[in-house]
Every structure is written in C-alpha cells, then in structure tokens.
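RECORD TYPE: inverse folding
INPUT: structure tokens
STRUCTURE:
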C-alpha cells in the first residue's frame, strides 16, 4: 500500500475544531478493526480447555489450532495493502468485517478439529487485514495537527478489544456455572465465547458504510471532486483544498515503491533491517502472547479454579490498557530507547519471579497446586510483566519501526519486520502448551533469558529516533 504517515505538526487553530469531531468519528470507526484484532486474537483464551475436552486433543495439536490464526494473519497483512490500492480502503474494511463475522460463526459450531482450524485461519486473515488497513486509513484522513494522537486509536482499540474479550468470556463462564463446556444457549460455553465475536464484526461492517473513502485513494482513481469533498470535511476551515489536492497528488507521483531488493546490501540484508527484525522478534520471544492466548489455562494449570482464572485474565487486560496509556504519554517525552530499557528490565525481573513461583508447582491432574506465597507472587509477577511490556515494547516497537527506516526502503522493511513478528508470535504460541507440559517454570526461564538479552541488543544496536526527522534516518 502506498501510504506514508506524516509527522505530527503544531496544534490546529480553534476554528478547525468542529471538523475534529468528524475526523475522530472516522478514526474511531477505522479503529474498530483494531478492536476486532485484539478481540479475535485473545477470545480463544477462554475456549482452550473447552476445545481440549470437546475434541480430546493433546497439547501439541491444540497449540496448532490456537496458532493457525497467526498464519492467516500473515497472509491477510500481506494482501491488504495491494488489495486496498485496487478496490479501496473501505472495501477492505468491509471484507475484513465479513471474514471476522463468518469466522466467529463457523468457530462457534465446528464439527471437527480441522474445521475449527479452518475458521480460525479465516479469522486470522481478517486480523492481518485489520492490522494494516486501520492505521493506513487513519493516517490518510487525519489532519497533520492531530495525526499522531489519532494514530494512537489503533493501539488503544487493540488493547480494549483484548480486555473486552476477557470480560465477556468471564461473564459467559459465570452464566455456565464456571464450566467451559457447560450448557449455554443450547451450545457449550466455549462455543458461545467464540461466536460472540460476530457482534462487533457486524457493527464494524455497518459503521464502515457511513465513512467516506480516503482522499489518497480517490485521487489515485482520478476522482478529484470526491477527494475534494472529503478533504473539505476533515481539514480546518480556510484550508486551500486545491493546494492540498495538488500536494497529495505530487507526493504520490514522487514516491518510490520499495521492494525486497532494496533491502539487500553487500553482506545480505542491510543492518537497519536486521535491527527492525530483532525488535519484532524480541517483542514476541518474551512470551507476551502466552498471557493473552493461554492465561486462563495457565492459571488453571497451577490449581486456580476456572472462574478465578478468567477473572485474572480480565485484570491483566486492564493492566495492559493502563500500560499502553503510560507509553503513549511518555514515548515522546523520555524517548524510545529509555522506555524500552525500562520495560526490558521490568520484564526480566517479573518473568524471573514467575519462573521461581511456578517451580513450586506440585501434584497432578485436578490436584495441582501452588503454595499460597508462590501463588501470590505468580499473580503479581504476571500482572507486572504485562504492565512493563505494555508501557514499553508494546508501543515502542511499532513507533520505532515506523521511524527508523530510510524513506527509500520504509515500506519493504516494515513488511519484513512485521512478517518476522508474526512468525515469532506463531513460534511462541505453538510451543507454549508443550513447554508447559514439560516444565512450566522452565518455559518462563526461557522467556526471562530473552528479556535479559533484549537489554544489550538495545544498548548496542537500536538507534534513538526521538526528535529526528524521517528523512534523517539512514
């Protein structure tokens, strides 16, 4: 997708504020894709044990079903940009909404494990499409004075979607008397959990009918009058719309479409590309998605009852929101590298504490327990880990990936880094159940090691991008 985010400019004049309400509505609708991204990614958390019991599967195969959505996400993210340039941003949103809805309904009534995996893959394609199209659309309709703040809607919507999915799962489990396989609306509770995702998907699709196509796409299609009308509603009064149209058109004509070949240097990939890949991989190898995909099963595996385990999944999601807000407030104040280092240190300590606490796990089957002291430490450590991740790597990595690459390779380099992130996400997701069966404490020792290794990686190779113009990156 030929999209270039513009730097945040000075505050807009007061006269432009009536237009801001309309722009906020457009950004909020687009960010519904981010909400569904978060919701659909983490809703599976509440269904893991129900799926295991319903289809009588082992940890390895179960992990494949959970992680298969990430393969679909990689496909969706790859296809979304080119598709949006051909049929428009709004049509891609509507396709993603339809895929979310169909995936939710199919996942609710699977007749076999492979069938469930297919629906999960389809939902993953929608996740990948939403991860690309929402920030792209927001960047293209936002006035420069507000672009940075409006762009944060996407990340806020993702963490909100995660939290809401955990709250809904917890409420449904309560209605099913604490049993994931309990009867609810003629189905098992876990099926209803997966099916409820169709509701926000329909809302997303309906709202997408009420927003205009982006001016950039309209200009590319030769629909200058339509683009002018859209700009007239999003730009401040007094803006020279003809000059704005000419500016966008000129920028599009002068853009270089980077390809993978541009990323190759004398010794393979350019060093800056490897740094981007490293940021993406470290973000996942600390095990953050274990919390969002498996936390209910994790707590049950150390003796916590299902209802409480679902509640703790919800509280970690709230902590995730709080941490994200903290990151948004400080990422431009103290810089990207210091925030990342704070997060790495905090994650290393909290993951180490979790590994220590889980080493006291005893018993088997339904008799698994943790001593009270270690159980308390494990709960605080898990919440602390999510907080340190959210206030640092959860936001900083995406900010840096958007800033650190030179303009001539930015699009291609971002694609490679994002692909590496999906692959690392898949690796952690698919291996955790087997690692947990082998040694839960050992799994957390591995995540702790990656958190520790991220510190010298930042200090030696990661550049500070705060306050630097995009054209300075090289």
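DESIGNED SEQUENCE:
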């Amino acid at each position: 997708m030929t999209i270039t985010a513009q730097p945040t400019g000075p505050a807009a004049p007061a006269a432009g504020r009536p237009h801001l309400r309309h722009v906020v509505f457009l950004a909020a609708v687009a960010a519904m894709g981010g909400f569904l991204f978060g919701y659909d990614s983490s809703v599976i958390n509440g269904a893991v044990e129900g799926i295991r019991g319903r289809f009588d599967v082992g940890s390895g195969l179960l992990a494949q079903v959970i992680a298969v959505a990430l393969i679909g996400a990689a496909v969706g993210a790859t296809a979304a940009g080119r598709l949006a340039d051909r049929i428009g941003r709004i049509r891609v949103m509507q396709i993603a909404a339809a895929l979310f809805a169909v995936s939710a309904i199919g996942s609710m009534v699977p007749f076999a494990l492979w069938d469930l995996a297919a629906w999960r893959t389809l939902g993953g394609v929608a996740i990948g499409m939403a991860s690309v199209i929402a920030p792209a659309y927001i960047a293209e309709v936002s006035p420069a004075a507000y672009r940075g703040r409006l762009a944060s809607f996407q990340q806020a919507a993702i963490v909100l979607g995660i939290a809401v999915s955990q709250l809904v799962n917890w409420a449904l489990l309560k209605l099913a008397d604490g049993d994931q396989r309990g009867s609810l609306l003629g189905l098992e509770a876990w099926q209803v959990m997966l099916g409820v995702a169709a509701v926000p998907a329909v809302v997303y699709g309906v709202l997408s009918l009420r927003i205009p196509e982006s001016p950039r796409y309209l200009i590319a299609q030769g629909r200058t009058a339509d683009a002018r009308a859209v700009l007239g509603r999003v730009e401040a009064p007094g803006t020279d719309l003809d000059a704005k149209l000419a500016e966008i058109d000129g920028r599009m004509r002068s853009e270089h479409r980077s390809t993978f070949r541009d990323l190759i240097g004398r010794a393979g990939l350019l060093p800056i590309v490897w740094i981007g890949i490293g940021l993406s991989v470290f973000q996942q190898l600390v095990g953050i998605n274990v919390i969002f995909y498996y936390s209910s099963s994790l707590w049950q595996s150390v003796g916590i009852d299902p209802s409480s385990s679902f509640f703790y999944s919800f509280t970690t999601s709230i902590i995730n929101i709080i941490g994200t807000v903290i990151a948004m407030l400080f990422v431009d104040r103290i810089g990207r590298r210091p925030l990342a280092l704070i997060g790495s240190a905090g994650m290393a300590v909290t993951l180490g504490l979790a590994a220590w606490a889980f080493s006291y796990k005893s018993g088997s089957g339904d008799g698994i327990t943790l001593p009270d002291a270690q159980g308390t430490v494990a709960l605080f450590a898990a919440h602390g880990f999510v907080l340190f991740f959210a206030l640092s790597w959860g936001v900083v990595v995406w900010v840096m990936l958007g800033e650190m690459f030179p303009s001539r390779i930015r699009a291609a380099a971002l694609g490679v880094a994002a692909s590496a992130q999906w692959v690392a996400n898949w690796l952690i997701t698919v291996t955790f159940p087997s690692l947990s069966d082998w040694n839960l404490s050992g799994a957390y020792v591995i995540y702790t090691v990656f958190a520790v290794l991220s510190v010298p990686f930042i200090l030696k190779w990661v550049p500070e991008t705060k306050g630097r113009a995009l054209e300075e990156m090289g």
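NOTES: The two ends are 22 Å apart (CA to CA).
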